[in-house]
From TrEMBL, chain A:
Job of this protein: Involved in the maturation of [NiFe] hydrogenases. Required for nickel insertion into the metal center of the hydrogenase.
Binding site for Zn(2+): 76, 79, 92, 95
Taxonomic lineage of the native organism: Bacteria, Bacillati, Bacillota, Bacilli, Bacillales
Pfam families (alphabetical): HypA
Name of the featured protein: Hydrogenase maturation factor HypA
Origin superkingdom: Bacteria
Keyword annotations of the record: Metal-binding, Nickel, Zinc
Native source species: Neobacillus rhizosphaerae
InterPro entries according to UniProt: HypA/HybF
PANTHER family according to UniProt: HYDROGENASE MATURATION FACTOR HYPA
Gene: hypA
Positions of Ni(2+) binding: 2
Family per similarity comment: Belongs to the HypA/HybF family.
From TrEMBL, chain B:
The organism of origin for this protein: Neobacillus rhizosphaerae
CDD domains: HypB
Protein's gene: hypB
UniProt keyword terms in alphabetical order: GTP-binding, Hydrolase, Metal-binding, Nickel, Nucleotide-binding, Zinc
PANTHER family: HYDROGENASE MATURATION FACTOR HYPB, HYDROGENASE PROTEIN ASSEMBLY PROTEIN, NICKEL CHAPERONE
Superkingdom of the organism of origin: Bacteria
Protein name: Hydrogenase maturation factor HypB
Length: 117, 219
């Protein structure tokens, strides 16, 4: 799918920020990936490895990608139960009505990176 | 040294989407992002929509495909302006591609702009294009399992057009089950059953567009 282009965007955003801050080498990238964010962790890891092996400037050969997976959670507006949604995202498992609102799991963020001058 | 960013990965897309949104609002252009699997009938639906509404509204279409001008040619044949975006393998349209294409239109002279996304039930749902409404087309031959299998598409669309209902007598598709599945993923979403080929049910879609247009120009 589009994890290669997403990773390209991620590395671009990080390199721009690092260049502004005078950082010469980047050793680590941390992302937050929600379970229902449309981004697949394995494909992101593969894309990161491919870019790193192309020796992009700033990223070191041993640069590491850390993914923090954000659980998908929803909360029923009727009984206030918090649940882990399956494919029926809005269906409260207790009330059995579509009364759930997604609380988390949609995040897809660059959390941080580690670099050296 | 550790630098914390907490930047949304789609931040560049979202900036372009905001740029598009402002432009659409300023020019009072109603913009609908139409998404579906390949073959669900988006282009046929748009051909019929242009045919029905072009006497009343000035309509333009952006066609997203991996390759070819075929869909844009079909829309042009119906008398609407159409611009093709070829993504060259890309699985979705993003807001930057749309922004670049908008230079080919005079939005002050357009009332309705339809963006036909690349046929794909996964990636397009994640990209805000700056549209007013996201609409999914699902077709009867695809089977009932598409709604539960692709919840991330259906949780992000407010209207589902169930197309090709003229094939219901020949296939094991349950409209009732589709409605139930959709409600369990997105209770605010509505579903219209229609056939772009036979015109059955199309009036509901046309009325919905008219309502959305009024809302857009009154904002």
């Amino acid at each position: 799918m589009h994890e290669m282009s997403l990773m390209g965007d991620i590395l671009q955003l990080i390199q721009e920020d690092a260049t502004d801050k005078g950082i010469q080498q980047i050793d680590k990238v941390e992302l937050i990936v929600g379970e229902i964010s449309n981004a697949m962790p394995d494909a992101l890891r593969m894309a990161f490895d491919i870019f790193r092996d192309q020796n992009l400037h700033l990223f070191t050969e041993t640069a590491e990608l850390v993914l923090h997976i954000e659980e998908a959670k929803a909360k029923c507006v009727l009984c206030e139960l918090e649940y882990r949604p399956d494919q029926k995202i809005a269906l409260c498992p207790s009330c059995l009505v579509p009364s759930g609102k997604v609380l988390s799991g949609e995040t897809f963020q660059i959390l941080s990176y580690e670099g050296r001058n | 040294m550790k630098i914390t960013l907490r930047t949304d990965v789609l931040t560049n897309n979202n900036k372009a989407a905001e740029f598009n949104r402002e432009l659409f609002q300023n020019t009072k252009t109603l913009v609908i992002n139409l998404m579906s699997s390949p073959g669900a009938g988006k282009t046929t639906l748009l051909e019929e929509t242009v045919r029905e509404l072009s006497g009343k509204y000035r309509i333009a279409v952006i066609e997203g495909d991996l390759a070819t001008e075929r869909d844009a040619d079909r829309i042009r044949a119906m008398g609407a302006k159409a611009v093709q975006i070829n993504t060259h393998g890309g699985c979705h349209l993003d807001a930057r591609m749309v922004a670049a294409t908008l230079t080919e239109f005079d939005l002050d002279e357009i009332d309705l702009l339809f963006i036909e996304n690349v046929g794909n039930l996964v990636c397009p749902s994640g990209y805000d294009l700056g549209q007013h409404h996201k609409v999914a087309v699902l077709s009867v031959p695809e089977g009932n399992d598409k709604i539960p299998k692709y919840p991330q598409m259906f949780m992000r669309t407010e209207l589902v057009l169930l197309n090709k209902i003229d094939l219901l007598p020949y296939l094991d598709f349950s409209v009732e089950e589709a409605r139930k599945d959709l409600t369990e993923i997105n209770p605010e979403s509505i579903l219209f059953s229609l056939s772009a080929r036979t015109q059955e049910g199309m009036h509901e879609w046309f009325s919905w567009i008219e309502g959305a247009y009024l809302q857009c120009v009154q904002q």
